[in-house]
Each structure stands twice: as C-alpha cells, then as structure tokens.
C-alpha cells in the first residue's frame, strides 16, 4: 500500500481514502463541499492555472493551489479541499514555484489544507484482516456518540458592519502576525458573526492595503474564522492611513454586503505605530459615518517616540477622542482577557457617535424669498444654490430631510420634511418650485417655518434653517430669529443685492462671520455652496 493511503480520514464513522485526481483537476470539478484528494507527483512540471492567494477561485487547479500554498511538493500527496462562497478581488502572488493570477470576481472559491493523520482505531468496525494480524479478534468497544455542539446563533444585539484592519507589516513579523490572527478569530467568535448580527470583512495593512474578503463573503463565525486562518502574511510598511482611506472608499459598498441602517465600524490593529499620516483618512471616515476603533499593541516606548512621525496618532485616528474608541494591549501574548471587553465595545452601538454625520442626520429647511424684486430668472439661480447644497446630503427616510417654504407677505409650504423621503424626489420637488412674486415679510416667514416646518416632530436630526433674501423686510426679523434659535434651530442667512447686512446678522446664529453670506449679484450665489455645507458640518460636529 502506498504511504499516502496510510493516511485515513473520518467522515462520520466511515474510513475514507483520498480520491486520486490529476494535476489539472479544478475545484469546480469536485462533487463535495469538503473533500480529501490525492495529487500525483510532478505537478510542478505542468503549466497550471491558479487564481488567487490563500483563497482561490474554483476554476483553479487544486494541485496547483496546494503547491502554491506549500501543502505539497514535487512528490504530490493528500490535500483537504474546502469549497467556499464566491468573492471579488482574487490577488496574484508568487510562491513555491507557482505564479498565481489575479481575478476580479468568481462565483465560488476554495481553500486547501494539510490532511490530518488519524489512528486506525477510529472505528469499532476494523477489517477482519486487521484482527487476524493482531492475533485475535477484539471485542468491539461501544462508544457513546457525542452530541454535536449547538449551532452558534447571530448576536442580534450587535447589528454592525465591521472591517477588521490587520497589521501585516514588517514591524509585526510572522510570529506576532499569527498571534494577531488567533486573537481576531477569538474576537469573531465572541461577536457571534451572522445574520442579523455583526458582519465582518478583513483588510490587510502593509505597504499597499489589500482587501481579503468583504462583508458578504462569509456570514457565520465558523466561515470567517476559517477564512482568517488562510490569510497570508504580506510585510511592508505600516501604512495605516492608506489602509483606512482604502477601506472607506472601497469596502463599505452595497455591492459588497453593506446593510442599510447598520452602523459601520473600522477596527484598526497596529503593532507599534503607523508609518504614514492617519488624520486625513480619519476625517474622511468620520464624514462618511464610519466609527474608527484603534487597537494599539506594544505601543511605542518613550525612547521610541522620536521615531513616530505622528505621535498622537491614536487620538487623531479614532471617531472621537473620548477613550471609548481606543483599546490598548501590552503585547500579543496572553490576550484572552482582552477579547470580551473589546467585543463589548464594538457592540455598544448607542455610543457610536460617528454613525450620525452632518450628511445623514440633519433637517435642512430652506426659507426662500419669492418677492417681486427677485424675478423669475434670479429665482432659478436661488434654487440652483439650494439644489447644490442639498445634493451633498444623504436624504432618505432614515437619513437627512429637506423642506422648503417660499414667502412674500404670505407664506407657502412647498413641501415639508416628510413629503419626500428619497433624494431624487426631494431634489425634483425643490427644482420645480414655482415663483410666487409679492412683498417681503421675512419675520413672519421665520415664525411660520418654526411653527409649521420644525415644530412637528422632526426626529433626532439636527435642525438648520437657510434664509435667502434680496431686500429689506417690512417686519421685525430679530425677534423671530432669536425664537427659532431658542428652539435649537441653527440659522444661516444669504443676502443678495439690497438685503441689509444688519438684518442678515440679526437673523444668523453665532458666530455671525461664519453664518452670514452676501453677494451683490444673483450670479454670485454659487460660491456659497461649499462654505455653507462646511458650516453645517462644523456646527453639527460641535453640537455632538
């Protein structure tokens, strides 16, 4: 009997021999999800098609992937094949004489692993020849079947979409990298990954960031743990800022499994300190509604601080510098005691302040001067400014809302915060507002906005009122504006042509210089779009 057939495996209570395959057999050709195969010798002499690294597209040669992974060598041997779901972004690499190819997407994947040798006494039903060889037949030993462990259920109290950024730099090294993967696997088990609980994906931080798998690739803790085990070490600089930018821009997409209304989390693991700047990436993450948690392991000693380019990197990187979003461990050894407290933080969604952003958690009320002095052509320029402002916000039934009132001596509710809860419909309604024409009573219009637009329940969103006018109001504006601000409404004023600066300042919130805008011509309104949006975000952040 060949030495390879001395390796036996158990599926249930049945002894299974490896199934012989050819060097070119692909994973897609195998009938079972988990199977033991026997690769022949000299597969390295063939030109084999292999797509991916660690996790391979199922159109790859199984034996080629096993050589690439270092499971077998020139003499061939048994390989355990595990079929997985499809994924995107199969990465190329060179290993053990095999150059794998990249592939943007495939419908199914697989991993390869070494087989596990088992003793012959795995079953009471040994063959008669085995009994004869032993001298006498032995009395079968009755074994009590162990009950399988109950399936792990998803943690419904932790509905988050989470990217784990693993440190794969030269700084951590292969040994500590493996300890990091062990810790992260325990964290995944503690989180109880699954629908409708937490979903997890992995990005590696090195010289160039690399997405290993997305939120939708694996939806059970067992599958995620298995996938993490197969992730290879890369090396390179610890470009944490670059990895955060990559994750914000490319990872959190509905195409890759992001769920609507679920908090988005990035957990950054860093051994030592980053090689690059993290502040710019962290700002983009906060503005995108992503909560960054920073896990620092073996943080720099005082004598090493001179080597750190950004010494307060943890404070700059996290969602908010309040100690909730930072977590430290002295080393990667003896980390079991840290798994539960970190998991608890990552599931405390009521403290994830960055889930709410200026883009998805505001109510914008537009108070539009429709008096005769504006004119229909200029009125369209006013609407163009408001449209350009509104396009920046995530308008939806669970996000930001917009409402609009046009005023002369009278007021007309064009639409309120609940009339249009999709962005396209809201923008279309704003664009199609017809021009009224008449006098100017801005004070009465502010009172009407507070009473009719903001006073009904508007939810937890922060309230903003943007007033655009081109002239002198016939009534008092200071009293109504102050009353609006006492109701928690932040007021921006935009004046054109003959609008008195005194009135604009009287209506605007403090500080006046950042809440008042003025231009002589209606054609100059477009310049205010960016400063107004930035002002809204600044006020929102300071308020929260």
TrEMBL record:
Transmembrane segments: none annotated. Residues 161-342, 363-532 form the VWFA domain. GO terms for biological process: sensory perception of sound. The keyword Disulfide bond applies. The keyword Signal applies. It comes from the Eukaryota. Plays a role in the control of cell shape and motility in the trabecular meshwork. This is Cochlin. It comes from Sinocyclocheilus anshuiensis.
């Amino acid at each position: 009997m060949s030495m390879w057939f001395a390796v036996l495996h158990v599926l249930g209570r049945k002894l299974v021999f490896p199934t012989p395959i050819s060097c070119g057999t692909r994973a897609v050709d195998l009938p079972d999800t988990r199977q033991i195969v026997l690769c022949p010798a000299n597969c390295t002499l063939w030109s084999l098609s292999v797509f991916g690294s660690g996790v391979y597209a199922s159109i790859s040669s199984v034996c080629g992937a096993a050589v690439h992974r270092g499971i077998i060598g020139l003499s061939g041997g048994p390989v355990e094949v595990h079929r997985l779901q499809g994924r995107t972004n199969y990465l190329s690499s060179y290993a053990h004489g095999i150059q794998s190819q990249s592939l943007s997407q495939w419908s199914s994947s697989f991993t390869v692993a070494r087989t596990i040798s088992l003793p012959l006494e795995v079953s009471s039903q040994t063959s008669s020849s085995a009994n004869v060889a032993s001298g006498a037949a032995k009395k079968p030993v009755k074994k009590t079947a162990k009950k399988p462990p109950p399936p792990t259920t998803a943690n419904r109290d932790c509905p988050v979409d989470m990217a784990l950024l693993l440190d794969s730099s030269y700084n951590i090294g292969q040994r500590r990298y493996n300890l990091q993967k062990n810790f992260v696997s325990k964290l995944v088990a503690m989180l109880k990954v699954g629908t409708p609980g937490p979903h997890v994906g992995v990005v590696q931080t090195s010289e160039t960031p690399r997405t290993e798998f997305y939120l939708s690739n694996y939806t059970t803790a067992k599958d995620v743990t298995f996938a993490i085990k197969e992730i290879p070490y890369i090396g390179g600089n610890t470009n944490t800022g670059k990895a955060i930018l990559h994750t914000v821009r490319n990872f959190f997409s509905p195409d890759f499994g992001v769920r609507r209304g679920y908090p988005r989390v990035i957990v950054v693991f860093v051994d030592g300190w980053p090689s690059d700047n993290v502040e710019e990436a962290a700002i983009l993450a906060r503005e995108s509604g992503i909560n960054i948690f920073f896990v620092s392991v073996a943080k720099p000693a005082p004598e090493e601080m001179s080597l750190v380019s950004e010494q307060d990197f943890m404070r700059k990187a996290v969602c908010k510098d309040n100690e909730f979003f930072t977590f430290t461990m002295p080393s990667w050894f003896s980390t079991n005691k840290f798994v539960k407290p970190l998991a608890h933080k990552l599931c405390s969604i009521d403290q994830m302040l960055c889930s709410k952003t200026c883009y998805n958690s505001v109510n914008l009320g537009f108070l539009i001067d429709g008096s005769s002095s504006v004119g229909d052509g200029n009125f369209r320029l006013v609407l163009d400014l408001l449209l350009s402002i509104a396009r920046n916000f995530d308008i939806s039934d669970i996000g930001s809302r917009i409402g609009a009132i046009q005023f002369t001596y009278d007021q007309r509710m064009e639409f309120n915060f609940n009339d249009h809860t999709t962005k396209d419909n809201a923008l279309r309604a704003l664009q199609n507002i017809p021009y009224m024409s008449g006098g100017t009573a801005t004070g009465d219009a502010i009172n009407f906005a507070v009473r009719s637009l903001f006073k009904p329940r508007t939810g937890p969103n922060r309230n903003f009122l943007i007033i655009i006018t081109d002239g002198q109001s016939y009534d008092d504006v200071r009293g109504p504006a102050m009353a609006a601000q006492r109701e928690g409404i932040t007021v921006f004023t935009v004046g054109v042509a003959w609008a008195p600066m005194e009135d604009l300042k009287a209506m605007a919130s403090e500080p006046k210089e950042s809440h008042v805008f003025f231009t002589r011509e209606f054609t100059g309104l477009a310049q205010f779009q960016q400063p107004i949006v930035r002002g809204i975000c600044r006020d929102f952040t300071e308020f929260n």
